[in-house]
Design brief:
CATH class of the largest domain: Alpha Beta
Order of helices and strands: HEEHHEHEEHEHEHHEHEHHHEHEHEHEH
Strand order of the largest sheet: 8-9-7-10-6-11-12-13
Radius of gyration: 25 Å
Number of helices: 16
CATH architecture of the largest domain: 3-Layer(aba) Sandwich
CATH topology of the largest domain: Rossmann fold
């Protein structure tokens, strides 16, 4: 009998219910290791330990048959005399309820993606009016205009006199420097992260890795320059740098990314920090969206393949309790011309977004009406703009970046940041 990963906990639940039903069982804790094997610790009512222990051999044999390679081979009773009491006490702090299994909780061990599964955001500083506001721009797939929208928002903010710092976290496919000034890049985030991990502390002077863009076509004649930290120079030992980045280590043992943002705050003094994330469920994108940002701008399209991934992202943000991670959905590349096709696509995207946020994001009992434009599910509509389809430098399309859709997105970011308009 083959069992799939998705079915392991339900299969274990059925076996435990047969051998040690509730009551006398009061709770079940699952320890699941990095390859998915499970170990169960079962708590029973006081005075029932010996009776339950007599059934453990049969339960273990049943689970071995049912779970195959996913069975961890050990079930112990939760009681003070047990050898696992100390272990149990330590891991309970990490345990989270298992959705759909009342009385069950789980401690997961991962080799990757911990940033996406954590239930606690950890921005490098609190979201206050005086602090820089961190915004992550994320898309499940590339080619939806994420980096272009980030540049448009940066330009709008800069023209208002706000100091903006852009950080390219798309290390595998850098997007900011190639469209701003690829020839100016010497070092960037890849260097910062490698050097920080090697030293065991963040690099002190982040400004050495930053560049400024003050082109009047983007920031206006009186606007503030846009500072950006590129991914790095795509040449020489760039691949060797990427090969030394352990993203899981950035979530668990050491957290250089947050430290680097703190140093960028001190050196560049931004009002806003905009993070351009790697497309897809990449570990570095998870760090930005799920752990570091005060606001995540999530780009999606009117397609089933897009929504399958977006639902995972919205659900992951909804896990951040007691308060879900702040986000704003964007309907990207919608049909540009007014008419029935565009209206149908807009309504379909809105309805799917509302269902998704109702199911995965909003707190229980909170009512968000579908047409409430202030809610996270209500999308900013960014149409397909042919002038932005293929361009070399962002200065070549500065006029297109003033499209009302980008202005609307900037206004929404400003509202959610709580910062006064200039």
């Amino acid at each position: 009998m083959n069992v799939h990963f998705d079915d392991v906990l339900l299969t274990a639940r059925d076996a435990v219910d047969r051998h040690i039903p509730a009551p006398p069982r009061t709770a079940t804790l699952v320890l699941r290791d990095t390859v998915g094997r499970v170990r169960l610790l079962v708590a029973v009512e006081k005075g029932q330990e010996d009776a339950a222990a007599a059934k453990l051999d049969a339960l273990g044999a049943d689970l071995k048959r049912a779970l195959g390679g996913f069975w961890g081979g050990l079930v112990r009773i939760d009681r003070p005399a047990d050898d696992f009491a100390q272990l149990l006490a330590s891991v309970r702090r990490e345990a989270v309820p298992v959705e759909g299994l009342e009385g069950w909780s789980v401690v997961e061990r991962h080799v990757a993606k911990s940033a996406w599964t954590t239930r606690k955001a950890s921005p490098p500083w609190p979201d206050t009016a005086a602090a820089p506001f961190i915004v992550a721009f994320f898309s499940l797939k590339g080619g939806v205009g994420r980096t272009t929208a980030l540049m448009a928002v940066a330009a709008y903010l800069a023209r208002r006199g706000m100091r903006v710092t852009l950080v390219d976290l798309d290390l595998e496919a850098p997007g900011i420097a190639p469209i701003v000034d690829p020839d100016a890049v010497e070092y960037g985030m890849a260097d910062l992260l490698v050097e920080s991990l090697a030293a065991g502390r963040p690099v002190a002077d982040v400004t050495h890795y930053a560049r400024a863009c003050d082109d009047p076509s983007l920031v206006g004649t009186d606007g503030a320059p846009i500072w950006y930290i590129p991914a790095g120079r795509m040449g020489g030992p760039y691949l060797e740098k990427l090969a030394r980045l352990d993203y899981e280590l950035m979530v668990t043992d050491r957290k250089p990314l947050g430290g680097l943002l703190k140093r960028a705050r001190r050196g560049l003094r931004p009002d806003f920090v905009l993070l351009d994330c790697r497309a897809g469920l990449h570990d570095l994108a998870g760090l930005a969206v799920h752990c570091l940002a005060h606001l995540s701008v999530i780009f999606g399209q009117d397609s089933e393949s897009s929504w399958q991934g977006l639902s995972l992202v919205v659900r992951s943000l909804g896990m951040l309790r007691p308060n879900p991670g702040a986000c704003q959905i964007v309907h990207a590349l919608e049909p540009g011309e007014a008419g029935e096709v565009r209206d149908t696509a807009r309504r379909r995207f809105l309805e799917r977004s509302h269902r998704c946020f109702e199911e995965h994001y909003y707190t229980e009992g909170a009512v968000r009406y579908i047409d409430d434009s202030e809610s996270a599910h209500y999308p900013i509509q960014i149409p397909y703009l042919s002038g932005l389809a293929r361009y070399q430098r962002v200065t070549d399309v500065a006029e297109e970046l003033t499209h009302p859709a980008f202005r609307e997105l900037t206004e929404k970011v400003l509202v959610l940041s709580g910062k006064p308009r200039r």
